[in-house]
Specification:
By secondary structure, the protein is of the alpha+beta class. It has 2 domains: 5-121 and 291-297, Aminopeptidase; 122-269, 3-Layer(aba) Sandwich (Aminopeptidase), CATH 3.40.630. It has helices at residues 12-22, 31-36, 38-41, 73-86, 98-107, 127-132, 139-151, 164-178, 184-198, 244-259, 275-282; strands at residues 5-6, 44-48, 51-58, 61-65, 68-69, 92-96, 112-116, 122-126, 154-158, 206-212, 215-224, 229-237, 265-267, 288-290, 293-297. Helix 8 (164-178) packs antiparallel against helix 9. The longest helix has 16 residues, at 244-259. The two termini are 13 Å apart.
Length: 303
């Protein structure tokens, strides 16, 4: 069987080059997400023929990510199928893009059954739209921002070693406000967020915060996903401050625009089936949804 291992911070050194070579668009193909969520989804990784292989568990769905790398893909997929059989499991691929499905159907025609994973679709936006908020569709966002500017004595800062702990203390207050201890989804998210805070610099994260009257009331963090896309992993704001979410979103988008001229898109990740979050993400008018599917192998693999 394939020698999978738990994902550790030191694995970033060999995983990142494989992800860079693959240049994939789903937020699950990102080291920060793999590392931060590894305990929740039991992510494990291996390297096989210059491909990154990841397997994990999503509730009842267990399986492998589409291999990230370059080389003989068919040989690697067959090895993954034998690995699944050796573990007494079906060969299931999770988070497949439509482009991945085209390749799989060319390599194994008629041998995969697919199911949509709508709750895992990523929301992808044009960076320029998030910065400028031009057009009638963004009028409400501009109104929120203008009211925020008129109502509060505010400032924006990049997150650094000196203010990182203040962001964490705001995150603790946010969790108390939202009842994280009594909500399994929020509790799991908080565990992933904590790993990002504890390893902020080593993970290569970038972030920004908002202060009102000197107090941190919002923060956000992310990093590059691929050659033209920035991934927003975390965004939190205190609910009593109207316009805080719109403002931190806009200010960090401007930061990305000014510091990463190569970036065209922003991936704000999935909504996890939360209707409120889905409505909020749709309200920013994504340029596309990064679709994801589950594929179950139903054929026979060569030994």
């Amino acid at each position: 069987m394939i020698n999978f291992k738990q994902i550790e911070l030191k694995d970033k050194k060999w995983i990142d080059p494989l992800l860079t070579a693959a240049d994939m668009r789903g937020c699950h193909h990102n080291f920060v997400n793999l590392f931060a969520w590894s305990a929740i989804y039991n992510y494990q990784a291996a390297c096989l023929e210059d491909y990154l292989l990841v397997k994990g568990e999503y509730g009842e769905d267990q399986g492998y990510f589409y291999p990230a790398g370059q080389g003989n893909l068919r040989t690697v997929l067959e090895a993954m199928g034998r690995d699944a059989a050796g573990r007494g499991s079906d060969f299931v691929l999770i988070g497949l893009s439509p482009e991945n499905i085209i390749v799989l159907n060319s390599l194994f025609p008629g041998n995969f059954e697919y199911r949509e994973m709508r709750d895992s679709f990523d929301y992808v936006y044009l960076l320029d739209k998030l910065v400028n908020l031009t057009g009638k569709e963004y009028q409400a966002k501009r109104n929120h921002i203008n009211r925020f500017k008129k109502s509060y004595l505010w400032s924006y800062e990049e997150i650094n070693s000196e203010n990182l702990d203040e962001c964490w203390q705001m995150n603790v207050a946010w969790c108390l406000e939202h009842g994280c201890k009594n909500d399994e989804t929020l509790l799991n998210e908080n565990c992933a967020v904590r790993r990002c805070f504890e390893n902020y610099r080593a993970l290569g994260l970038e972030g920004g915060l908002l202060r009102v009257a000197g107090r941190v009331i919002a923060y956000t963090m992310g990093d590059k996903l691929n050659s033209d896309t920035f991934d927003i992993h975390i965004e939190k704001a205190m609910g009593e401050i109207q316009g805080a979410y719109q403002m931190i979103n806009r200010e960090f988008a401007a930061f990305i625009h000014n510091n990463h001229p190569e970036i065209i898109f922003v991936n704000r990740e999935e909504d996890m089936g939360n209707e409120g979050l889905r409505k909020a993400k749709l309200s920013y008018h994504p340029v596309r949804m990064e679709e994801k599917y589950l594929g179950k192998f139903t054929g026979a693999l060569s030994v």
